[in-house]
Amino acid sequence: MTRILDPIERLAWLRLARTAEVGPVTFAQLLVRFGSATVALEELPRLARRGGGKIFVLPPEADIVRELEQLEQVKGRMIASCEPDFPPGLAALRPPPPLICVIGHAHILRKKMVAVVGARNASALGRKFAQLLSRDFGEAGLVIASGLARGIDSAAHEAALEQGTVAVVAGGVDIIYPPENEALYRAIAERGAIISEMRLGEAPQARHFPRRNRLISGLSRGVVVVEASERSGSLITANYALEQDREIFAVPGSPLDPHAKGPNGLIRQGATLTESAEDVLAVLRPILGGGFGEPENGAPIASGQAGMLEAEADQVRVRIEEALGPAPVSIDELIRQTGASPAAILTVILEMELAGSCRRHSGNRVSWADLPGP
Questions:
Q1: Which helix (H) or strand (E) holds 15?
Q2: Tell me, what DSSP letter sits at residue 328?
Q3: Whether 165 contacts 133, CB under 8 Å
Q4: What does DSSP assign to residue 110?
Q5: What's the rounded Cα separation, in Å, for the pair 34 and 38?
Q6: I need a labelling partner for 121 at 20 to 30 A (CA). Which of 67, 155, 187, 333 fits?
Q7: CA 230, CA 234: separation in Å to the nearest integer?
Q8: Structural domains of the chain, ranges and CATH numbers in brackets
């Protein structure tokens, strides 16, 4: 069920999302547990203490107020995942990003999209083909989503300006990166939309790009990879598309061309071989009329139930801590090993994560927190 946040809850929503220990999964669990971001913020220090932490620092409220004011100054807005203007593709993700910041025309985010991504050091032919695809998709009524990077991304955005394009950036929505795309950035802000889930003013860093790629694929019904090396970030976008049940398309190339290694590999793994926009549209037409599925909206847990859960969590906490190790283990495996209920395990993991002693990994897995990033 969608709703528009009031000013107090909007401030709390952003403050909770900007809390270092709270990722999208934890954010969603906190909302289900407490019903609102305002109450969740009040409970965070207590939950962190239960998880073994001593001090829990929330972002200063003044910083959050300042971010919202600065966002308004650059003619942007924050859209929460519960609000009607939130992109349906992102709302259907498990879990969705708690919020996005938008500069430009937010209404375009509710249109059907296809992503066109590829190499930064793209060939001239690769850029031309990305432009042809994007123009044809636009004429078919699709908005182009991409990452505003050099090469294929830029070519796709440029060709789609007339029909509609959305740029997902890895830093703050107000940061122009790469700098040479300033004119393109401003054109998209004027005629399309630029979005990010990062805080305003934050420079893009390497660890932010996978999160950006998850949003690109999440927005889209399908992802088209035009050129990509074997270690390209475009393949990360394709992997996210697979996890999100999106369609994957790849443009073939010569085995002697390093740019073709990524797309050719995707084709071997089952991606649709793409030589024209019609190859993509033939797959997407039967499903374009449907939605992305309903987002999960769990009802808040009643206070009595919450107390029972915490009591059960205290009984099984030691077993769960002993079952954790340096290697990530799935939640299902923790249930099997400990015999604890899923609700109790999720309660303990939530408290440990807030305390900084546990961390989440892809595939619904967890480990002790002193591991390098994935």
A1: helix 7-17
A2: -
A3: no
A4: G
A5: 9
A6: 187
A7: 9
A8: 7-102 (no CATH), 110-164+204-288 (3.40.50.450), 303-362 (1.10.10.10)
